[in-house]
Amino acid sequence: MQKNGTIHAQFNGIAEAVVTECGVRAIAGNNTSKGGVYYAIWDTGAYQSCISPKVVEELGLETVAQIPNYTAGGMVMSTLHYVEMVLPNGVGAFKCLAACCPIGHLDILIGMDIIAQGDFHLANQNGNTIFTFKIENNKQ
Question: What is the DSSP string of 58-69?
Answer without folding.
Answer: HHTPPP-EEEEE
